Amino acid sequence: MGTPQVTAPPCAPSSVPGDATPSSGVIHVNFRHAAGFTVIGNHLAQHRGLSLAAIGLAAHIQSLPAGARIGIKHLAERFPESEPFVLAIEAQGKKDPRKTASWPYCVTYLHNRYGLPVLLLVVCQDRATAEWAARPISIGVRQWQTLALNPLVAGPHNMPVITDVAEARKDLALATLAAITHADNPDVGAILKTLSAALRDTPETIADPIVELTAQGLGNRPAAQHWRNLVAVDTSFYKSFMSEEIRDEGRAQGRAQGRTEDILLVLEQRGITVPDKVRERITDCGDPETLRQWLMRAVTAASAEEIFAEK
What we know:
single chain, mainly alpha
């Protein structure tokens, strides 16, 4: 038997002399680029809460020059191997017979505008509404169906209750839908807190739409105000429209509270008694302009009630 001959090294050699190259796993061969490159942070490239597709799309967008078009049509043309579609999301709080006409119109409009398949996702917060929304919509005559619409419905009956931050980070889209659909769940506070915590390390381009979508999806339910309060607790990592709105409200409330204290202080220093009803009316007022007028009158008013008198 002949002597075995080694015809190839067991792994790729190191590009740097004397550098220890691992025998398995990722092996980097680094070259310094002088042009035509984009620096992308590991907080995006290795983000645990984003899918591989989302990270790849984000990296592609980061590499584009300023002003580049990134609409649905442009991305579909750039990546023809994918299966692009338009996702239309409708938050449905109760049964609405008018939607049998507006939903087909919306779907056909989007299909005509973008030339892509359209998926209608209806998000509901109770099972009865979800079952109603899931019914197929048929348009046509009795003998012939012209158009059929079958919405995809998410509701508390088919969405999980997610209260684990790590689980929420694995699928932020699912966590968002779960939070909206369980708006009436007794544990909605924990559900919304979990989603808020999961968004802390998420890039703004991902977090901002989720913040807005959650707020809109919760509608006028008590959970909506709870969500606003959660966002307001730590708005340093939220720069969405709703976050700016909350900060503006906070500044307005601060001004109102300051003027309330000024009015009571002026009346106290002037030795004017403030009845409980007057004090309650002053402290309950949240309009800075009204409080400003009351403060001006408090300087010369003969009684506490006189600050309310219109001149």
